[in-house]
Write a structure and sequence with these properties.
By secondary structure, the chain is of the alpha/beta class. Helices cover 25% and strands 25% of the residues. The structure holds thymidine-5'-diphosphate and magnesium ion.
Length: 452
């Protein structure tokens, strides 16, 4: 069947038009980006048309944007955002289906500290389904306006009428516009619609949440392309246990170090206010070999986490590291340091490392505890109970100082740890447990056992 003459092919990356399909766009050079579109249907880019021309101002004459943060009503979310929702900002929330993105944003929509209205755009669920979730969460939602469509033109008309201060678009994958090509769900549709919504909130002093589904293998080719358009990118992820973590990977208005920790219950998500003991395993008496407790920092909060290490003779010709919660390269480096400075043979062993509760740790302060866990696993000597460990390990075997050691010691003591093994520091008032290198650390931990 012959195609109608009014159809053209448009590059979904740059908007370039051709009368016939091409494998590669002659304008931007991308492959396989041509999609069928009606001729004359927009350029694929925003029409700049009647906008007021931009002007410049002396920097000194401009007032700072202080006080332009709105509390989301959820402390953990505020912390990850760097102190609340910044007005005129766009926040992308990514995560697997079912992790709780819609729940989190509905809870925030209901409790955000603002008098203005919140527009919840639910293109995935019907109004009745959202109402059911709201009932479950105990949300009345007087000031939440709900609209169940993914069509950009309709959403824009509603935004102009309602003038919301917070807009939630759930999800970006279901947004579509007639202007952005005939096929809904393409990257071009998503970018075009997101850009339109972002422009709207920047002009109207509002804030935007864009929800994006991300699949397990991290295939986020779609949402990934939005990351540079938004101000903040947050990922919601689940550990092996019950906890769900909120982490920023990009934040124009704050640090990316903080995490928010939640559990999902009958009444939706609730914050885990004191997470310091969550990643410990309650044990009576002696620890099994291979277990060490690290006092690490997550953002500014000290956490105690149990590291479990196991060494078994290598199954292949090469020793391998199996560690998905701690960077494998770090495990291999610490193992090499142990091998060199303590003459502990690890290069013929497969190394397995796990963290209790499934938390992922990236902080350097975990290294000394990791070394002790590997040593204990390899030698079969258990680390004495109630010892918390922190310190960075250099390649030369030295134990290097870490940040906020006083806070780590305090948290350890609060949780019933009576010994703290760490780098030499003024805050460490147990001189025998302040160690300069890995040899001294191992001696401090195991000398009693060896004597007996
Ligand atoms: P949801 O917010 O729909 O996830 P997403 O938007 O990321 O796809 O949450 C999904 C899961 O949470 C779902 O499996 C049901 C569960 N849930 C609870 O356990 N308790 C609750 O109060 C709510 C609202 C959901
Ligand atoms: Mg959802």
């Amino acid at each position: 069947m012959k195609k109608q003459k009014t159809l053209v092919y448009k590059c979904s990356t740059c908007g370039h038009e051709e009368v016939k399909w091409l494998g590669r766009c002659p304008d931007c050079g991308e492959w396989n980006t041509f999609v069928e579109t009606s001729a004359g249907q927009g350029s694929g880019r925003l029409v700049e048309g009647q906008r007021v021309p931009a002007t410049s101002l002396p920097l000194s004459s401009i007032d700072a944007d202080a006080g332009s943060r709105i509390s989301s009503g959820i402390d953990e979310l505020d912390r990850v955002l760097g102190g609340g929702i910044m007005k005129r900002s766009a926040i992308l929330i990514g995560g697997e289906p079912g992790i709780g993105k819609s729940t989190l944003l509905l809870q925030s929509a209901a409790s955000a500290e603002t008098n203005g209205r919140v527009l919840y755009v639910s293109a995935e669920e019907s109004a009745g389904q959202v109402r059911m979730r709201a009932d479950r969460l105990g949300i009345k939602g007087e000031r939440i306006e709900l609209c169940c469509t993914g069509r950009l033109e309709d959403i824009e008309a509603i935004m102009d009428a309602v003038k919301p201060v917070i807009i939630v678009a759930d999800s970006v994958q279901t947004l579509h516009s007639d202007e952005a090509g005939l096929t809904p769900g393409t990257v071009n549709q998503m970018k075009y619609c997101s850009y339109s919504l972002i422009s709207w909130v920047k002009e109207h002093d509002a804030a935007l949440f864009l929800v994006a589904h991300v699949t397990k293998d991290g295939s986020i080719s779609g949402p990934k392309t939005l990351e540079h358009m938004v101000d903040t990118v947050i990922y919601f992820e689940q550990s092996d246990g019950d906890c769900r973590f909120l982490r920023a990977t990009k934040n124009r208005f704050g640090s990316v170090d903080e995490i928010g920790i939640f559990t999902m219950g009958e009444q939706g998500l609730s914050a885990v206010e004191d997470p310091s003991f969550l990643f410990l395993v309650r044990r009576e008496g002696e620890l099994p070999p291979g277990v060490a407790t690290a006092a690490v920092l997550e953002g500014t909060r000290p956490l105690l986490v149990e590291i479990q290490a196991l060494t078994v003779p290598a199954k292949g010709a090469m020793s391998r590291v199996f560690s998905d919660r701690l960077d494998s390269a770090r495990v291999a480096r610490v193992a090499a340091t142990l091998e060199k400075h303590l003459s502990l043979r690890l290069s013929d062993q497969d190394l397995y490392v796990n963290m209790a509760g499934g938390i992922r740790i990236t902080e350097v302060g975990v290294e000394l505890a990791l070394a002790c866990a590997l040593y204990s696993a390899r030698t079969g000597l258990p680390i004495p109970a109630r010892v918390a460990i922190a310190g960075e390990l250099s390649l030369t075997g030295e134990v290097r100082p870490v940040q906020r050691i006083a806070a780590r010691i305090k948290t350890s003591a609060n949780l019933g740890f009576d010994t703290f093994l760490g780098p030499q520091s003024e805050s460490l008032d147990m001189p025998d447990k302040a160690v300069g290198d890995i040899k001294a650390a191992i001696k401090a931990l195991f000398s009693d056992e060896k004597r007996s």
